Give the backbone structure.
Amino acid sequence: MSYRRAILDTMNRQWSLIGAPSSAGAHTPGVEQAPGALRAAGLLRSLDGVTDLGDIPGFRWRPDPSRPTAQNAPTVARVARDVAAAVAAVPGTPLVLGGDCTVTLGLVAGAGAPALVYVDGGPDLYTPQTRLNGNLDAMGLAHMLGLPGAAPEVAAVGGATPMLTPDRVVVYGDDLPVGDPERDLVDSLGLTYVPGSEVHADAAAAAGRARAAAEGAADHFVVHFDVDVLAFGAAPFADVPEPLGLSLDEAGTTLSILAASPRFAGLSITEVNPDHLPEPTDLQPLIAMLAKALQ
């Protein structure tokens, strides 16, 4: 997607929705149902100017004994490449509905050298060498950065490796303590870090700092939004529960400020697990937040 087109879309945004119904990178099935569930809950009806381009071929998670520390890696790479091809071809601003977090590799690869604001309950900086249970959705950013130990076929989704350099990454919304291995990597890599505590204190200011960092890092930027950044008690639809996450209001303020940038060039929404919903209607608060933030 061109930077010029991103500017025009901000003035009169037309969303191009791409479904990526895959749990290939997850630890269990469930999130592959999310694109259909979000459509059924009324996401398209709630947004102005959206064209539904359908789904890429999906995948339901299954164990992969052949690659226990990088399970389903070839399928994760295939899904990400399919997303990248779809993103590169869309007429409007891409809105990718995952699926697990690894679909964001496709958004980044298809968007053409963007910066990335990574809104997530954790920065996903593990590799197959450091997370032995093998779910690649906990390793997405590590693969985009090409960290040592990354699965080669996943890291190469964008062609050149690495897809991203640390100066083009903003990690946003988690509250990992100093001493946590991922938090230590955020610091040692020099990634811009906007912790959840900063968002709780002033969501608009926190989002403004993230936006300024992304705008200063590249001609355009994309946003990854994993719903596990949300406090699970108020938003019980994440694949991985996070008891101390952001409120829906804080997330909505964040997405609204990021999407209002003339350099904003796309969004992925990941890790919605419909199987966790007490009632199907419990997706409505998420739909309402997204509709308000993305208009």
